[in-house]
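Technical annex, item 7. During the second reporting period the consortium partners agreed on a shared format for inverse folding records so that results from different sites could be compared directly. Each record opens with the tokenized structure and is followed by the designed sequence. A conforming record, contributed by the partner at site C, is shown below for reference.
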């Protein structure tokens, strides 16, 4: 299982125009200017590929921070 910091780095890679240093475990990712449903799908695909975990849309919507999303992954792994 990857660490929280590794997950944050992978999460940040899904963004083209957002500086990776802006994304931390406490980032409320839905509030990022670049956040969109397309990036959400990219994040879901990355989680499936890197963690072999399927995250549903409602789980993505209910997560507030990047760390919240990581906790969902850990609970399913």
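Designed sequence (site C submission):
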């Amino acid at each position: 299982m990857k660490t929280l910091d590794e997950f944050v780095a992978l999460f940040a890679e899904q963004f083209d125009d957002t500086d990776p240093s802006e994304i931390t475990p406490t980032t409320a990712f839905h509030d990022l200017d670049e956040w969109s449903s397309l990036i959400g799908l990219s994040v879901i695909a990355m989680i499936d590929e890197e963690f072999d975990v399927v995250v549903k849309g409602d789980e993505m919507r209910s997560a507030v921070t990047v760390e919240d999303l990581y906790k969902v992954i850990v609970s399913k792994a």
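The helical segments are 4-12, 37-51, 57-62, 66-76. The chain has one domain: 4-76. All partners now use this format for quarterly exchanges.
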